[in-house]
Design a protein that fits this description.
This protein is an alpha/beta fold. The chain has helices spanning about 5-25, 45-65, 80-85, 100-110, 145-155, 165-180, 190-200, 210-215, 265-280, 280-290, 300-320, and strands at about 35-40, 65-70, 95-100, 120-130, 130-135, 160, 185, 205-210, 220-225, 255-260, 295. Strands 2-1-3-10-4-11 form a 6-stranded mixed β-sheet. A 5-stranded mixed β-sheet has the order 7-6-8-5-9, sandwiched between helices. This is ABC transporter substrate-binding protein.
Length: about 325
């Protein structure tokens, strides 16, 4: 036998439930009410680490909560990406990453334990971190054309450091277009790669300005070119690589993500606060000191579209450079 509540009683119960839900929502603490962890998939001292600490400090001031940078380097940013993807999507674990994890890795590896689109919530693009091609001062070259001529005259005898996907793809693109034979040597971090470049273990390195800016303007290394399409005021006299290597086109971007499934209100709050942080002149000045160019997305949706476009662009770059996908 079925029993049914009178219509008036059902309405009363429904209204009571709605009121209870509204009350619970009203009593829920406003976001954020606890420290936020900002995972960085590169080592301390890297360019992305420097950007994360500057942006994190400013974001902390606006949110009135600590933003703690947590370096999780390894496997070409895969370690940090996996940890971020598996975190609770509550806004208390964020991921400051680059094109390494979200543009290049999907084409460089036959399989990944994370999906750059499905496993993440795009929050905001932060900007662009230029890279520069530097060589050991022990080499008898002073310009990029001279370096390429030297490499052609000594095939297979030079080596370059590759601690991340950007360095790898940039150098392999140069090799492919200029038709030179230079051996790639994998490294776990930019600081390690710089140490070996200075020590003469490798002769070349495409380094991010955040890691290497202090050395680029001195005499410890020779800076031959920059990856941006236009010369940088931070490196006066250093030409774009594309002026010599025709067809070279590479942009290294930084952005902040959260795990998939973040509440839209939290995503919007973070995006709004990050827009304010990146519009702040003090923030811009501090980032400029490490060579970083602020270039924020206006909305999370705009950033999501950019990520998808860059994923396709980097796949094309990697294919054109003749780089074969390998096992992670």
């Amino acid at each position: 036998m079925r029993f049914s509540l009178p219509r008036a009683l059902r309405r009363a119960c429904g209204a009571a439930a709605a009121l209870a839900a509204t009350a619970a929502l009203a009593q829920a603490p406003a976001y954020p009410n606890a420290p936020i962890t900002l995972i960085v998939p590169f080592a301390a001292g890297s360019g992305t680490d420097a950007v994360a600490r500057t942006v994190g400090q400013k974001l902390s001031e606006r949110l009135k909560q600590p933003v703690l940078v947590d370096n999780k380097p390894g496997a070409n940013a895969q370690v940090g990406a996996q940890l971020a993807a598996r975190a609770r999507p509550d806004g208390y674990t964020l991921f400051m990453t680059t094109n390494t994890s979200h543009s290049a890795n999907p084409a460089l590896y036959t399989s990944l334990k994370y999906d750059p689109i499905k496993d993440f919530t795009p929050v905001a693009r932060v900007g662009e971190l230029p890279f520069a091609l530097v060589v050991s001062p022990a080499l008898p070259v002073k310009t990029l054309p001279e370096f390429l001529d030297y490499a052609r005259a000594h095939p297979g005898t030079l080596s370059y450091a590759t601690p991340n996907s950007t360095s790898l793809v940039a150098m392999e693109s140069i090799k492919h277009i200029a038709k030179v034979d230079i051996l790639g040597v994998p490294y776990k971090s930019s600081p390690q790669a710089l140490t070996d470049l200075l020590g003469g273990q490798v002769q070349a390195y495409v380094v991010d300005l955040g890691s290497g800016k202090s050395m680029l303007t001195g005499d410890k290394v020779r800076t031959l070119g920059i990856t941006t399409a236009q010369p940088s005021p931070l490196l006066p006299g250093v030409p774009p690589i594309g002026q010599t290597v025709k067809g070279f086109d590479l942009t290294s971007w930084n952005g902040i993500f959260g795990p998939a499934g973040m509440p839209p209100a939290v995503v919007q709050r973070l995006n709004t606060e990050l827009q304010a942080v990146l519009a702040d002149k003090d923030t811009q000045d501090k980032l400029a000191q490490i060579g970083f160019q602020v270039w924020p997305s206006r909305t999370p949706e705009e950033f999501a579209q950019y990520v998808a476009q860059q994923l396709a662009h980097w796949r094309t770059l990697i294919q054109q450079a003749g780089i074969q996908a390998t096992s992670p």
